[in-house]
């Protein structure tokens, strides 16, 4: 059965305003297969649903992880292929999680060095104290 006529529909301009993604990016996502099929009005205007907005939110989280566009598109393809791809989807997300955790560790170490240096420079502003480097 088709989606309810009472379900909210959003123009590409409204989606741009809600998500911060440009219309160019939204069209590109659709063209490369990152977006599922977007319904069109009788005049051909894209009509996004709340489900589309949820998907774009998820894609934004994937982008924030540093996942490649190719992997995001692959994930979207797997979703469209159906339930039998759950294992492969999970593997892709688990690999991404490992990469994110590794980057968090690297950034935590870098932050500790910055904190140390900032503390050293803060000591320099105290009369009689000397900062190094």
Could you please describe the fold and organization of this structure?
With 133 residues, the chain is mainly alpha-helical. The protein has a single domain, classed as Multidrug-efflux Transporter Regulator, Chain: A, Domain 2. It is built from 5 helices and 2 strands, in the order ααββααα. A two-stranded antiparallel sheet has the order 1-2. Strand 1 (39-40) and strand 2 form a beta hairpin. Helix 4 packs antiparallel against helix 5 (86-124). The longest helix is centred in the last third of the chain and has 39 residues, at 86-124. The mean pLDDT is 92.
Strand-helix topology:
Layout: H1 12-19, H2 23-32, E1 39-40, E2 46-47, H3 50-65, H4 69-81, H5 86-124
Helix pairs in contact: 4-5
Q: Specify Rg, calculated over alpha carbons.
A: 22 Å
- Can you give the mean pLDDT? 92
Largest sheet: 2 strands, antiparallel
Gross CATH architecture? Orthogonal Bundle
Order of helices and strands: HHEEHHH
Q: What is the general shape? A: elongated
Oligomeric state, counting identical vs distinct chains:
single chain
Fraction in beta strands: under 5%
Write down the domain tally: 1
Percent helix: 55-70%
CATH class annotation: Mainly Alpha
How many helices in DSSP terms?
A: 5
* Spans where pLDDT lies below 50 across 5 or more residues: none
The end-to-end span amounts to 69 Å
Strand tally, please? 2
Structural class: mainly alpha
Strand order of the largest sheet: 1-2
